[in-house]
Write a structure and sequence with these properties.
The complex is a heterodimer of chains A (287) and B (186).
Chain A: H1 2-9, H2 15-57, H3 72-82, H4 105-112, E1 117-120, H5 123-128, E2 145-153, E3 158-165, E4 173-180, H6 207-210, H7 216-220, E5 223-225, H8 231-236, E6 251-258, E7 261-268, H9 272-286
Chain B: H1 3-11, H2 16-37, H3 40-57, H4 66-88, H5 93-103, H6 115-131, H7 134-144, H8 150-157, H9 161-181
Helix pairs in contact in B: 1-2, 2-3, 2-4, 3-4, 7-9, 8-9
The chains are: A alpha+beta (287), B mainly alpha (186).
Chain lengths: 287, 186
């Protein structure tokens, strides 16, 4: 059958492309592990703290010796009050400096939440969302329509995402994703000066063939600091590919960091100038 | 053992090559087979067959990336096994869904492929994925080479399942247009 032959045809994909897909996929897993690692570390600290507390308050009691069963619930009580399972962070800190946040308490609580949310939103509701709405795209260029806006949260992820398209016959799209910055993103943050980390004009497509392996991740999905972003940097992210059956149009993908909020964008068919204006608006609104 | 050492062991016709391959890439190849077959026993057999085929292929071959060399063998064996099972009963699971998705790229998906189609399709797909953006390419490859589920891909790339579905649907449409342009389908 033809469809089977087509499926089998994927075996001819070059190995460097398979490798590239694995590297990108692995990044997500690393982030996930780091998040669980952070959670595990917090639990250990909470337990260690609870164990040490009686000793500190009453020097006559050392360590866990003498702990009674009534002390055990106090550990979980501390954890519950710090990380309410049903709470959604309500606001973001007004930071706009250059530092990379290690991890905010809100981000932590979001990571540790066992709340599951997968909700389709209207654009007005998305814009009103706390803490992500202020960083959501409020208006797309003429011709684009909202295809999907979702608020998603599980034990690993918490984000607000939107997809704008031009409908049938066009492949133009704007994908906009707002989430908390996590430590797993740190190796993708680049300064504007380090053009080798993000300037696609320096490399040929596919990137897997041209970008040194140690730079692949950051060149593929760099993150700029909001207060450093320039039009020139956005332009350097624009590229075109010979897209069979597709309409012409520049593509761009990168992230911008505003305090501990990360905005990740992937677009096709919009201008760098328009995108820069939107992103600059977010940055100035914050500072 | 490093990949180079394993390859060297194959070249020396030393049977330890199989054990080392299994130790290093057994679970990786099993996951590929399992995605296609959804059957533990069948998948294990495919992995064992992978080492046998590698034994026959090395030498003369000297794979540049051993991991993907094995991945391709496992995928090929698993697809053949799936096809054989499909003649007995309708295929099930994720592979059936994937085949239905790929059928959208063809005007006559259930017809017998021509010799020209079989010979050309691999090269065309390889060229096509290179024209895609990095993200589209990666998602397309995760779905149609590694046969991963939509939810797994969504989790990997931190996107919603719906977003992945949209990206895949658009990319399939592009593939269809490309195959039409190249004269592989009407």
């Amino acid at each position: 059958m033809k469809k089977f032959a087509l499926y089998e045809g994927f075996n001819s994909i070059e190995e460097n492309i398979l490798y590239q897909s694995e590297q990108d996929a692995a990044r997500g897993r690393i982030i996930s592990w780091k998040r669980w690692g952070t959670l595990a570390a917090c639990i250990c600290l909470a337990i260690a703290g609870a164990a040490a507390l009686p000793g500190l308050l009453n020097p006559g009691i050392s360590g866990l010796e003498g702990s009674t069963s009534s002390e055990i619930p106090s550990v979980s009580a501390v954890m519950e009050s710090e990380h309410p399972s049903s709470s959604v962070p309500q606001s973001h800190p007004e930071t706009s400096d250059n530092r990379i946040p290690k991890s905010s308490s809100q981000a932590d609580s979001a990571k540790k939440s066992d709340t599951f949310i997968d909700k389709a939103l209207t654009l007005p509701k998305a814009l009103a969302n706390e803490p992500f709405g202020a960083y959501m795209l409020s208006e797309a260029p003429a011709g684009f329509q909202v295809e999907n806006i979702r608020l998603y949260q599980d034990e690993n992820s918490y984000f607000l995402s939107g997809l704008w398209t031009k409908g049938t016959g066009s492949f133009d799209e704007i994908s906009w994703r707002v989430s908390f910055y996590s430590e797993g993103d740190a190796d993708r943050v680049t300064s504007i000066e380090d053009t080798k980390n993000y300037d696609l004009g320096l490399y040929s497509i596919p990137l897997a063939d041209s970008v040194p392996i140690e730079l692949f991740q950051i060149v593929d999905h760099p993150i700029f600091r909001g207060n450093e972003l320039t039009l020139d940097a956005v332009k350097r992210r624009a590229y075109s590919v010979r897209d069979m059956g597709d309409t012409a149009g520049k593509r761009m993908n990168f992230g911008v960091l505003y305090g501990d909020i990360l905005v990740e964008i992937s677009t096709k068919g919009i201008s760098p100038e328009w995108l820069y204006e939107k992103l600059s608006g977010l940055g100035s609104a914050e500072s | 053992m490093t990949d180079e050492q394993i390859i060297e062991t194959y070249w020396q016709r030393d049977e330890r090559a199989i054990g080392e391959s299994n130790a290093r890439y057994g679970s990786y190849c099993f996951a590929i087979a399992q995605n296609i077959l959804q059957n533990r026993e069948d998948s294990e057999e495919c992995v064992n067959d992978t080492w046998l085929q590698a034994w026959l292929a090395i030498p003369p071959q000297r794979p540049a990336k051993l991991k993907y060399f094995f991945a391709k063998i496992t995928r090929s064996i698993s697809l053949n096994r799936y096809k054989a099972k499909m003649t007995l009963k309708r295929g099930r699971g994720e592979t059936a869904v994937i085949l239905d998705e790929l059928a959208e790229c063809l005007s006559d998906p259930d017809s017998v492929e021509s010799e020209y189609f079989s010979r050309e399709i691999g090269g065309k797909i390889n060229f096509f994925v290179k024209t895609l953006s990095q993200r589209e390419c990666n998602i397309f490859v995760r779905r149609y080479f590694f046969s991963e589920s939509i939810s797994e891909i969504a989790n990997r790339y931190r996107l919603t399942a719906h977003h992945i579905t949209v990206i895949l649907s658009r990319t399939r449409r592009k593939l269809k247009q490309y195959l039409q342009k190249e004269g592989l389908i009407e």
